[in-house]
Design goal:
Length: 482
């Protein structure tokens, strides 16, 4: 099937062929025709499926088909995203796909000066890509008028709700012109569907077309997954070993907390692996720099928290490492979606210590598959080590990107493996300002006894052995084209 058979204009067919896309992905095949028809859409598509082009291409076509009257240039499309990184990424896609069209766009997010954004909006833009907080600041300052909005996109809506943006979203929706049969078109994209998402969708969407390209909560099919059981205090050592012995050139590493990300990046650097951390406490400049260095290969390991990693699109990212398993199993699916993008092969490696057995079990339940376990020679876990609680105490959230969010958070104490995991252990999470990262909804509020047999069989034998775990036997990884 070709892009032109989906009803896309010559300019857009040309741009996708210039981008090297030979055929539409499943979400594009389904979404593009119905969006071109003007229908509302509810799409279950996770990152890496090509969903951004799936909504951006028809959106650009609809906007360019009808120029607004009177030579003015009102904002006609708004794309809301949960994170700055995703906003920047989507804006880049809008620029790329729209380069043969006379449309203008602006990206609006916090953490950077508002003045250049105001100047850009004054000059007139057709499309705004924004995070909710800064968008509301602009609306409050009357530097942005959405009264002539024609298309609204909520991208990664599940993550926006996770981050506590629901009230901001509702405030924004209340300010928009009416939707309905001949009014605004609404597109909602989400990787997962909670009751809250269903409620949001039912209030927002009119007779939507339903698109579901991936089994919900299913791990990306093209990603090979492996667990390396290891003691909590030896994770960092094992990670450095894996990076070195496999000659990984571009690896994205996940930690649960911002503090853990900083510490691990420092330790990897000391081990001779160039590394940078990316999380919500870093300035936008530092985040952008770290990502650019990683993309051009100057940084070998990018250590990220879940929220900071949303929206990262790095072509052909070969490896993702879960240095710590997420306590929210859906985050595992999001994490491994960073690799194996758009049909590329990818590898997701999880370093799992005895404290994380419950997390692993929840992930396997959610993804409905058992992840093969491979013990790396020399790193077999010590069976005498007892599990320790991952989350010790609960505290009210102090600060959150989603302003109204006041879920409790818990402090991460165990299983960091980067120097804080021994004996009567020091507190790991010392990160002051909290932006919804290292979050710990009450799924694992305290220590539970391990369920047994999940990490390693008696006798230290892995449940399954695959080639992934043997250092030095794999071909050199692809370098990013980015
Ligand atoms: P997304 O799921 O929107 O984050 O897109 C993931 C990646 O797939 C991006 O790097 C896109 O450039 C790429 N992509 C999107 N559509 C296609 C396509 N039809 N063929 C190949 N790659 C694509």
């Amino acid at each position: 099937m070709s892009f032109s058979s989906l009803g896309l204009s010559a300019e857009l067919v040309r741009v996708v062929s210039e981008e090297g896309y030979s055929e539409p992905t499943p979400v594009q095949r389904q979404a593009i025709p119905v969006i071109l028809e003007g229908r509302d859409v509810l799409a279950g598509a996770q990152t890496g499926t090509g969903k951004t082009a799936g909504f951006t291409l028809p959106l650009l076509q609809r906007l360019s088909a009808r120029a607004p009257a009177g030579g003015t240039r009102p904002v006609r499309a708004l794309i809301l995203t949960p994170t700055r990184e995703l906003a920047a990424q989507v804006a880049e896609s809008v620029d790329t796909y729209g380069r043969h069209l006379p449309l203008r766009s602006a990206v609006i997010f916090g953490g950077v000066s508002i003045n250049p954004q105001i100047a850009q909006l004054r000059r007139g833009v057709d499309i705004v890509i924004a995070t909710p907080g800064r968008l509301l600041d602009h609306i409050g300052q009357k530097t942005l008028d959405l009264s002539r909005l024609e298309i609204l996109v909520l991208d990664e809506a599940d993550r926006m709700l996770d981050m506590g943006f629901i009230r901001d979203i509702r405030r924004i929706l209340a300010l928009l012109p009416s939707s309905g049969p001949n009014g605004r078109q609404n597109l909602l994209f989400s990787a997962t569907f909670s009751e809250e998402i269903r409620q949001l969708a039912s209030g927002l969407l009119h007779d939507p077309a339903y698109i579901d390209v991936a089994r919900r909560n299913a791990a990306v099919e093209t990603v090979s997954q492996v667990v390396h059981p290891v003691d909590r205090a030896r994770k960092r050592e094992l990670l450095s070993f894996l990076i070195g012995s496999n000659d990984w050139r571009q690896v994205l590493v996940f930690t649960r907390t911002k503090h853990g990300a900083n510490k691990l990046a420092e330790q990897l650097t000391r081990d001779g692996v160039t590394a940078a951390a990316i999380h919500g406490n870093k300035s936008q400049g530092a985040r952008t720099r770290a990502l650019a260095d990683f993309k051009r290969g100057a940084v070998r390991a990018l250590v990220a928290t879940d929220i900071a990693a949303r929206g990262l699109d790095i072509d052909q990212l070969p490896q993702v490492v879960n240095f710590e398993l997420p306590n929210v199993p859906e985050d595992y699916v999001h994490r491994i979606g960073r690799t194996g993008r758009a049909g590329q092969e990818g590898e997701a490696i999880s370093l799992v210590c005895v404290d994380e057995r419950d997390f692993l079990r929840d992930i396997e339940r959610l993804t409905r598959r058992e992840i093969p376990q491979v013990v790396i020679a020399g790193y077999a876990p010590d069976p005498s080590i007892r599990p320790e609680p991952v989350f010790k105490q609960r505290q009210p959230r102090q600060h959150n990107q989603g302003r109204q969010h006041n879920q409790p958070r818990q402090q991460n104490r165990a299983c960091s493996g980067n120097g804080a995991g021994q004996g009567p252990r020091a507190q790991v999470d010392g990160n002051g300002g909290h932006q919804g990262e290292g979050k710990a909804p009450a799924r694992h509020g305290g220590h539970r006894k391990p369920q047994g047999g999940n990490v390693q069989r008696p006798g230290g034998e892995p449940r399954n052995r695959t080639h992934q775990g043997r250092p030095g036997q794999r071909p050199a990884p692809r370098r990013s084209g980015a």
